[in-house]
Amino acid sequence: xxxxYFSGFGFQREEWLFESILKxxxxxxxxxxxxxxxxxxxxxxxxVKQNKRIQRLVLIAPCMLAHKSQAFKNLQLKAYQQxxxxxxxxxxxxxxxxxxxxxxxxxxxxxxxxxxxxxQILLNYHYAPEKLEFLxxxxxxxxxxxxxxxxxxxxxxxCVFFRNYGCVWQFKGANHLLIKAKK
Length: 183
What we know:
This is Pimelyl-ACP methyl ester esterase BioV. By secondary structure, the protein is α/β, with parallel strands linked by helices. It has one domain (4-171): Rossmann fold (3-Layer(aba) Sandwich), CATH 3.40.50.1820. 42% of the residues lie in helices and 14% in strands. The chain is built from 8 helices and 5 strands. It has helices at residues 19-22, 35-49, 70-82, 84-95, 97-103, 116-124, 129-137, 155-162, and strands at residues 4-6, 29-33, 56-60, 141-147, 167-171. A 5-stranded parallel sheet has the order 1-2-3-4-5, with helices on one face. Helix 2 packs across helix 7 (129-137), helix 3 (70-82) crosses helix 4 (84-95) and helix 3 runs antiparallel to helix 6 (116-124). The longest helix is centred in the N-terminal third of the chain and has 15 residues, at 35-49. It is globular and about 45 Å long.
């Protein structure tokens, strides 16, 4: 199993969702889903700077929202501050998690409220090309997995951005969770 895994915003211990992607991962691989992809990238950079071995960086549905308008970001933050539970419910609905919960309510154990600080990071984080170039130059293999029907991300823009640094896997008809999107 993967050496280090970072959970998505509002999630915990959800790596089982990505078992087929993570199964071939080894001790020196780092992976993250959505918000966790940001954490995984930062962690990998720090480890490599300290001359620690990182073989592969796996980014699953990396969230890239920094390009969104400040008005969009302010609206997200205000909505979260006003009612975090309602915000998370709407978020889970948008990414397709609510449909899974309807089928199996016990899946709620893989979620939590998230935090305002994590949401702020998620909304403002810039994937710096120099960090990705640094990792590539140090021999870290980058693999990115993107659902082409992701309702919160611009999947095509993600593909274009990340293909310059590694292998990008595109899942036709898949949502943010990399499962078949409900229409």
